[in-house]
Design a protein that fits this description.
This protein has about 230 residues and is mainly α. It has one domain. It has 10 helices and no strands. It is elongated.
């Protein structure tokens, strides 16, 4: 999938041919936005699943390309609500591709004005009544992405720790945006657990490197002694 241009109305007519074939997607994104606006969160959840299926199964694209499309929707086209299911679908593809770092960016990236957390901030800044949609629908989706990241086994411990710290900080900020300070504190507490886990891993790696260097030094000295003899 190659995104060539986005319109403010989020019309896909000037994007890739693969998206043009899926006439359901634009209407589903509009339906999703309407569900959030009218607080029909069960319907929003159902529509998100439909969008996720169509995008991940019917479009020839990569997780990175889809992430870039979601990013353009959010920051160039000002389609805050519409970017959320696209980010969610991107996370699904990225998990299959083993790209943990980009998955984290689906939650929040840069100064955290991108990703699903960024969408939360933009929506609430535009309309404070969207706090309910963020709390009851979007934050649970973010937790879903977090859980998908936890399931990944093909990534290093250090990388997983770093991404989980970032994701949990984004979750904490989203919780605080909707006034749930208790949930925010829980997320930050969990983030600190991952930070400690990361620190232990770094210390273990340093000790391993030190021991390897020390062992090599001993072996080299033994070799020199043998040559002299």
């Amino acid at each position: 999938m190659h995104i060539t241009q986005l319109t403010v109305s989020c019309n896909f007519s000037e994007t890739s041919s693969s998206l043009q074939k899926l006439n359901q997607v634009p209407s589903l994104l509009q339906e999703y936005k309407s569900c959030l606006a009218t607080r029909k969160f069960d319907e929003a959840k159902k529509t998100n699943k439909e969008i996720n299926y169509l995008i991940t199964n019917e479009i020839n694209t990569t997780g990175d390309e889809l992430w870039r499309f979601a990013y353009d929707l959010l920051l160039e086209a000002d389609c805050f609500e519409e970017s959320i299911p696209v980010y969610f679908a991107a996370a699904s593809l990225l998990k299959n591709e083993g790209d943990l770092g980009r998955m984290g960016s689906c939650v929040g990236d840069g100064d955290r004005w991108g990703g699903m957390h960024g969408a939360n901030r933009w929506m609430i800044e535009r309309d404070v009544t969207m706090k309910e949609a963020v709390k009851r629908h979007v934050i649970p989706l973010i937790h879903d992405v977090k859980n998908q990241m936890l399931e990944m086994t093909s990534v290093s411990e250090k990388d997983k720790c770093e991404e989980m710290i970032w994701v949990l900080e984004s979750i904490a900020e989203s919780e605080e945006l909707v006034g749930d300070d208790v949930a925010g504190k829980e997320a930050r507490k969990e983030s600190k657990v991952w930070e400690e886990r990361r620190r232990r891993r770094i210390d273990e790696d340093r000790r391993r490197i030190y021991e390897e260097r020390r062992r090599r030094g001993i072996d080299e000295e033994r070799g020199k002694t043998c040559i002299v003899m």
